[in-house]
Specification:
With about 130 residues, the protein is mainly beta. β6 and β7 form a beta hairpin. It starts with a strand and ends in a 5-residue tail after the last strand. The relative contact order is 0.25. The mean pLDDT is about 95. It has one helix and eleven strands, in the order βββαββββββββ. The protein has a single domain, classed as Metal Binding Protein, Guanine Nucleotide Exchange Factor, Chain A, CATH 2.170.150. The chain is globular, with a radius of gyration of 14 Å. It binds zinc ion (ZN) (2 copies). One zinc ion binds next to loops.
């Protein structure tokens, strides 16, 4: 097991992942695009018990395609998106992997919401593709 550390751009929020992620996926949905200001989220799903945080996040309650609330946590100082929690995945957190100190060894297993992906992006080698959610 490898611990991984990460945090927001300004350093006010830091976290440690105490286990390897359960799944690793790129999400092209329009909410991930908007909250990141970019093309997609690089998401790690990990047990909530294995996520340790120092510093406070601010929470925006978003509504996912499923109609269920998605609690999006970000740094209230620098705005970096750090994680999301959804009732669809109780006991799990979705960590925004772009906030890790190192993404070494993290290869996406899946791409979801590919029907929203930028047309000029090529598929990621070895990743399963789903037009919507898995
Ligand atoms: Zn910050
Ligand atoms: Zn998404």
């Amino acid at each position: 097991m490898q611990e991984r550390n990460g945090g927001c751009l300004c350093g006010a929020v830091r976290y440690t992942l105490k286990s390897e992620p359960r799944s690793i996926a790129v999400c092209h949905c329009t909410h991930c695009q908007r909250q990141s200001g970019s093309l997609f989220s690089f998401n790690l799903v990990i047990r909530e018990a294995d996520y340790q945080q120092s510093g406070e996040t601010v929470v925006f309650v978003d509504k996912g395609d499923s109609g269920h609330p998605v609690h999006r946590h970000f740094c209230g100082r620098c705005g970096s998106p750090l994680l999301a929690k959804t009732a669809l995945m109780p006991g799990k957190v979705v960590v925004k992997a772009g906030t890790l100190d190192s993404m070494e060894g993290l290869q996406p297993q899946a791409e979801i919401y590919t029907d929203r992906a930028a047309a000029w992006l090529t598929p990621i080698p070895g990743a399963a593709r789903f037009a919507r959610n898995v």
